Every structure is written in C-alpha cells, then in structure tokens.
C-alpha cells in the first residue's frame, strides 16, 4: 500500500495544504470575489474524509481527558470491587491498571498527534498491522462503549426509581433515551461545552467528598475517629485474599475505559497537535487524583462487608452513599444520588459520542454498513448515534436479573474488550516505530514523543494481554459456566472474526517497509489559517478539486 502511495506523493500539494481538503460551498458563494476569513474557516472546520466538524476546543479535550468519562462505573461500580477485594485490592487494581493506561496513552499520544485524521487508532490498526486486525479492534471498541452505555442507563434508571417508583424503569429509560438522542443532534460544539461544565462539576464533587472523608475519618463529624479501622476489620483484602485482588482488575479496566477516547475526539479538534499532548498530560492527574484518590477514600470510609454495597434485592449502592449514612447524615443519600445522576448524564453523553464515532469510522472504512457512515451538515453521524443509543436498551436486562447481576455481566464484557484494545494500541505503536526505523525516518517528525520507548509500549502490550487472559480465572473454582463464558467469550470470538475477515477479504500483514507514514497527517487549523490565505474563491475551489483527486487516488490504492 505505502509503496504505491509514495509513487504518487509527488502530485500532492505541500504538507500544509494536502491534509486540508475542504467542503464544497454553495453555488451562491462560488465567485471570484475575495474570500473572507470566516467563510474559509467554516470550510476548513469540516473534516473532508469523515464529514465530522472540527469544533472541539483545547479546553474541551483537556477536561474530557481529566474527567469526561467518570461516571457510575467509578462511583457505583467501585462498591462491587470493594466488596470482592477489600480496600487494599482496589488500590492495587487501580494502581496497576493505571500504569497500563498511562503506557497506552503515551503510545496513543504519539500516534494521534501525527495522524489525527478520522478513525484514530481504529484506522491506524489497518495501516500499521492488517485490515483484519483493524476489524477486530474496531468492533471490540464498539463493545466497550455499548457495554459502558448500557451500564450508565442502568444506573440512571435505578437512581430515579429510588426517588420515585411511580414511573417504571423502562419509562425513565425511554425519557432519557430520546433526550440524549436529541442533544447529540445539536453537534460537537454543544457536546464539548456540556462536557466541559459537567466534568467540572464532577471534579468539584470529588474534591468535596475527599474533604468530607478526611474530616469523617478524623472524628470531626460524630466524634468517632474511624482512621484505618476498616483496613483491620474486615481487613485490607476482605475475605477473598488474592482471589479478590484478581477479581478487581476487570472492574478497574471498566472504570478506566474511555481514557483513550481523546484520540477518537482528535479528529474533531481544531488543533490536535496542541490539544492532544496537553490532554495526554492530564491523564496522570486523572489516574492519581480521580482513580487512586477515590479508591483510597472509598476504602477508608466504607467497610468492604457493608450490607448496602450489594443489597439483597440486587440493587447497587455507592460507597459514598454508605459513608454518608455511617456518618449519621441520612438525608445525604439524596445529595450523593444527585451527584451520581450528574455523572451519569455526562457519562452517557460521552459514551454516545465516542461510540457513534467508532461506528462512523468503521462504516467509512467498510467494516460496518455503509449508511452508518453518513454525517449531516452539522457533522453529526446521525445513524451511528441512533445505533449506539439503541444498544443502550441492553440496560433493561436488569429488570429481570437485578441491577447488580446485570452490572456484573456488562463489566466483564467491557473489561475484556478494553484490555484487547489497549494491547492493540501498544502493538500498533511498536509497529509504527519499526516502520520509522526501517524507512529511515527521523523522530524529529513527531509532534509528541512517547516516554521510555520501547519499554513502555512493551509493558502496555504484555500486561494487557496477561490481564485479558487471567481476569476470569476465579470462575474455575468453583466452576461457573455462565461467568466463565462471560469472562472469556470475546477472546475466541475476536480470533474467529480476525480469521474470517482475513479469509474473505484476503488481507495481509504489512511489512515495516510497506507501512504508509504520510497519508493522514494534518496541521492545526489555527496554524494553517495563519500561514495560508486564498485570494479568491476560485483559488479555494481549485485547491478543493486537487485535494479531492488526491484523496480518491489514496482510497483506490488502499482498497
């Protein structure tokens, strides 16, 4: 693929222009009159290869990286992890998986800043490895967001039923289903702005809880200094020992799911070479403050054997709720539930956004039905949004199985898929650097360089594969058929999917010298706008025609 692409590279416009195919403007605007900067800016805001709009600002992406996907998985699901493993186990789990997540983000940062065009690592899997490999990665990533979204709808309806059961659970689901669908149709600017403020509320809420926890365990609430009491009774590792530690890893993977979403959003960012590295650096604080901080204070304020963590009726409760109750503030339960509801609104919004973009890029790359690759004039992938939102109806399985059991099923699916995707990203990074070396490319071309390469990429790959294989070992003794299938079904399904796709489409594993290192690069819009100006609309139209021709050649060679 890359050899052919290099043969036609001489016909491309200069790098500052080649990655900026624009959108054809209305006939009323196509004249020889001078082109105003605002018209030019609007033309450049639509990504020509995916149809999405580059409307996310740097602050939007930074806040998404810091707190965007924090939701019921952390605030409610941590209760199940605490009950299974104890306070020490969740800190170990968050710490180990956090290190893996950081290594993956280093790899992703390097890849995304140089190739920010549509599809992120979903498209790069095709280029760096094999189209069949990209097929498996893409659908596993879709499963991640389908499972996460279903869990978030599950928690929203559970919270509202807790307040009032006059409306059935499915009724609440339908209300929010249509509300989120309508909001997503407003476009990426509305999504980014909403996520910025909701993420800010989540950060402030966690800070308030951390302060409360310090005061509570010090005896400042009711005079009883709790300290590290719950680490002694019922114990740091609860009643399950190492089995508890192992069972926590899959929960933690689900909580971290979405940390890589900034790469998918990079296509809709005005200045990815500035915004993505900045967002990557925010990940460290997300791991330390949000995840490890929450794990530490949950273990301090809530005993692992608290009956309310998983109630007899199958309902889920947050460790925050139980801590407030133990402190003697019964009415505080409603405050915590309100906070959880806010995090759910943000998390559902983010899940639909990332999930729909995943489907969009898959469809545009011939790995899903073609109609799912349609975008409207606002840059919204309408049918992809409808599809991922419809999959959220899986959450209604809790009507028959109970919220906690449904949550457990969903967690296993999303956790395994997360490990598979992370391993794939690390592997892509290793392949990318090998291609750079074989093709005698300079590392100075990279806007962002990963730390400690290749060790950090190798670490991310090996640990992700290892945890994907061992996360379900607790189902062997005693053997539970349902839990075993739920824990491991995606691994053989992924292998079978890879083999079938490879056989049907006769794809092949790219050699390092064949990997294309040029197509898909894009400069920041602000930088581009400052150095390029078209004197007339005809100049822009000519550039559009040239870029369209180049892109058509590229797609034909890729096919």
How would you describe what is shown here?
The chain is mainly alpha-helical. The chain folds into two domains: 1-49 and 520-559, no CATH class; 54-490, Amino acid/polyamine transporter I (Up-down Bundle), CATH 1.20.1740. 68% of the residues lie in helices and 0% in strands. It is built from 24 helices and no strands. It has helices at 2-7, 15-18, 37-45, 58-68, 72-75, 77-114, 120-128, 131-163, 169-184, 188-217, 229-235, 241-256, 261-265, 272-301, 319-326, 332-364, 382-391, 398-401, 403-438, 455-470, 481-488, 490-505, 525-531, 537-558. It starts with a helix and ends with a helix. 52% of the residues are buried.
CATH superfamily heading of the largest domain: Amino acid/polyamine transporter I
What is the total domain count? 2
Shape: globular
H/E element order: HHHHHHHHHHHHHHHHHHHHHHHH
Q: What is the top-level CATH class of the largest domain?
A: Mainly Alpha
Total count of helical runs of at least 4 residues: 24
Biggest β-sheet: count, sense, barrel? none
The first-to-last residue Cα distance is: 9 Å
- Helix-residue proportion: 55-70%
Q: Count all strands and give the number.
A: 0
Low-confidence stretches: 1-43, 528-538
Category from helices, strands and their pairing:
mainly alpha
Radius of gyration, in angstroms, nearest whole number: 24 Å
**Average pLDDT score:** 79
The name of the CATH topology of the largest domain is Amino acid/polyamine transporter I
